Automatic annotation (TrEMBL):
Taxonomic superkingdom: Bacteria
Pfam families, A to Z: BrnA_antitoxin (PF14384)
Protein's name according to its UniProt entry: Uncharacterized protein
Classification via InterPro entries: BrnA_antitoxin
Length: 76
C-alpha cells in the first residue's frame, strides 16, 4: 500500500473515534466559553502516577484538589 492509498483510506477522527472526538469538542467548547483555561503543568512523577493509576477521571480529581487548595489561600 502506498502513502497515497493510506490517505485515500483515511477516516475522519469523528468517524473513527466518535467518543474521543466528542470529548475533544466538549473541551474546546468549555475553553471557548471561558469556563476552562488550557495550561501545561509539570508535576512530580509520583503524583502523576498516583492520579493516573486510580481510573479515568483523574484530571477532574486533580482539578478538584487544585480548587480546594486555591480556595484555602487568602484573597489576592
Amino acid at each position: 500500500m502506498t502513502e497515497e492509498d493510506d490517505f485515500r483510506a483515511a477516516v475522519p477522527l469523528r468517524g473513527a473515534f466518535p467518543e474521543l472526538y466528542a470529548g475533544l469538542m466538549e473541551d474546546r467548547a468549555a475553553i471557548a466559553a471561558g469556563r476552562e483555561t488550557g495550561v501545561t503543568l509539570t508535576r512530580d512523577a509520583d503524583i502523576v502516577a498516583r492520579l493516573t493509576a486510580t481510573t479515568p477521571g483523574w484530571t477532574a480529581r486533580m482539578a478538584d484538589a487544585l480548587r480546594r487548595s486555591a480556595e484555602a489561600l487568602p484573597p489576592p
